[in-house]
Amino acid sequence: MAIVHWPVELQHGQVGLRPLRAGDGGEWAAARQRNVSWLRPWDATQPPGAEDGARTFRAMARDWNRQARYGRMLPFVITYGGAAGAGARSKWPLVGQLTVSGITYGSARWANLGYWVDEQYAGRGIVPTAVAMAADHCWFTLGLHRIEVAIRPENKASLRVVEKLGFRYEGERPRFLHIDGDWRDHRIFALNVEEVGPGLVARLQ
């Protein structure tokens, strides 16, 4: 049975995770617009014939939060307190997104984790910290057993994230996900709760 903890906010140092909100549309769209070329090679796309129709950001946020309340996913935005003029935590800017999806309970108890970050904030340790917080929450609060990350072989920045956190490489899945207009190969990385000791945040320290 799903253990639902939503909404939830997580923080470690100057990195925060909070629920994606319907009111984030303007800030989210601005971040996506200024990072079009940075993100396009890694963005999920719909294969031909599978288009499910355009929907507004507000509708997407509401749907994802509804799914989160049913324990099916965790749609977080990444916030950063080290940005110029960030001020109080409630004012920290949105610098990326982290989504835990495909949450499965029963005998499997696993989930997928994906993320993106604004190019101007890349290389500051924000994403490894966000991934560590989200994974620890999944293991130690939600009771999941396995966290999996799928990364394109060409995505050197994301490969560094899982390497830094000690995710185990499990092999390649040919034409695994539809990304940037075609089916793309992905490398699969995973960790089980027995492998992480006190957790990934502790591992970062």
UniProtKB/TrEMBL annotation:
<protein>
    <submittedName>
        <fullName>Ribosomal-protein-alanine N-acetyltransferase</fullName>
    </submittedName>
</protein>
<comment type="similarity">
    <text>Belongs to the acetyltransferase family. RimJ subfamily.</text>
</comment>
<dbReference type="GO" id="GO:0005737">
    <property type="term" value="C:cytoplasm"/>
</dbReference>
<dbReference type="InterPro" id="IPR051531">
    <property type="entry name" value="N-acetyltransferase"/>
</dbReference>
<dbReference type="InterPro" id="IPR016181">
    <property type="entry name" value="Acyl_CoA_acyltransferase"/>
</dbReference>
<keyword id="KW-0808">Transferase</keyword>
<dbReference type="InterPro" id="IPR000182">
    <property type="entry name" value="GNAT_dom"/>
</dbReference>
<dbReference type="GO" id="GO:0008999">
    <property type="term" value="F:protein-N-terminal-alanine acetyltransferase activity"/>
</dbReference>
<dbReference type="Pfam" id="PF13302">
    <property type="entry name" value="Acetyltransf_3"/>
</dbReference>
<keyword id="KW-0012">Acyltransferase</keyword>
<feature type="domain" description="N-acetyltransferase">
    <location>
        <begin position="15"/>
        <end position="194"/>
    </location>
</feature>
